[in-house]
Amino acid sequence: DLGTHIVTVPAGEYNAMFDSIENDAEITALAGQLKEQATAVMDVTDSYILDAVRAHRTVTGMMQRYGADAVTIECLFLKDRKPCVSFAIQNGNLVPCGCENHLDGTLTQMLGRWLWDRAGFMHNPEYDTSENRYFGSHGTCAWKLHGPEGPAQPFLIRPFFHQAPKTPAIDVAWTPEEPVFLAKYYNQKKKVCCWTGQVISSPTCPPVGGCATRVLVDIDRVDDVCTTYPGTHPILFCGDRGAARTLQVFAHLYHLEYVGNLNPVMS
After folding, report:
1. Biggest CA-to-CA distance, the chain
2. Burial class (CB in 10 A: 0-12, 13-18, 19+), 141
3. β-strand 179-186 against 191-201: which pairing, if any?
4. How far, CA to CA in Å, does 186 sit from each of 6, 40, 122?
5. Measured between alpha carbons, how far is 23 from 240 in angstroms, rounded to an integer?
6. Is the dihedral of CA 56, 60, 63, 68 positive or negative?
7. What is the residue-wise DSSP string for 188-220?
8. How far apart are CA 57 and CA 104, in angstroms?
């Protein structure tokens, strides 16, 4: 629907580029900077942080090789070469990077880049049905959620949760009571959704699970939060109802079906 040109590349090409990169002074310096910026490093050794920076150089190199504006990767095929930290850095610099070859979510991140100049958090959606709250978690959240020149959120460096080895991921603390909106563009379905709300907290782990950033949200004006389910890998953006309405107007101009909790746009 958006005329986006997509190039498919085998994971082996990424792996080969990663394996060709050796640690050097620049990689060591960036790894040190990440550790200094983090409020803590939990259960991750320096060697894995260096590998995360090698993955960052690989992601950057792959995008340069293909002249790409954004990338999404089947991350689980990469073993210890996972780009979780790189994706957090890139998204904070307004270079959209999406998990698990998920096109809809990555295109939604691209819309965030161009509509609001800010990063979006691709995540897995879950629900607290007892309190009617929305919960999102994943391992690639940017700590610069308000644009490259905006303030940085506090973050931890901790392991990617799902399997060994303990490759690092970013655990970002979201600001309580900040307005946010949940967005999803559905490729080739001429549809977009947008639900406004506000952050309640970033629950700690333990006791709450979820890799590796976690954010609990109160969605505005919904009797059953499960009705907001947007499918896999929606994107959570910082922004008020005015910012969210920009996406609604975009949908109207592009003749996309809109689903959400904002009032209809007048024709």
Report:
1. 57
2. buried
3. antiparallel
4. 16, 37, 14
5. 42
6. positive
7. TTTEEEEEEEEEEE---TTTS--SSEEEEEEET
8. 25
Tell me the pTM: 0.96
Distance CA 86, CA 91 (A): 8
Nearest Cα residue to 73 out of 137, 30, 3, 10:
10
Residue type, 211: C
Q: Which two tokens stand for residue 162?
A: 């799902």
Residue 267 pLDDT greater than 60, yes or no: no
In single-letter form, the type of residue at position 33 comes to: Q
Instruction: Encode pLDDT of 107-142 as tens digits.
Output: 999 999 999 999 999 999 999 999 999 999 999 999
SS3 content of the chain, % helix, strand, coil (to 5): 35, 25, 40
14 and 86 Cβ atoms separated by less than 8 Å: no
Q: Are the C-beta atoms of 258 and 251 separated by less than 8 Å?
A: yes
- The confidence score (pLDDT) of residue 206 equals 85
Mean per-residue pLDDT over the chain, rounded: 94
Residue 142's CB is within 10 A of a number of other CB atoms, namely 28
Percent residues over pLDDT 70 in the chain = 97
pLDDT digits (tens, 9 = 90+) for 149-205: 999 999 999 988 766 667 899 999 999 999 999 999 999 899 999 999 999 999 998
Q: Which two tokens stand for residue 60?
A: 């950057």
Yes or no: say if 244 and 238 are a contact pair by the CB < 8 Å rule: no
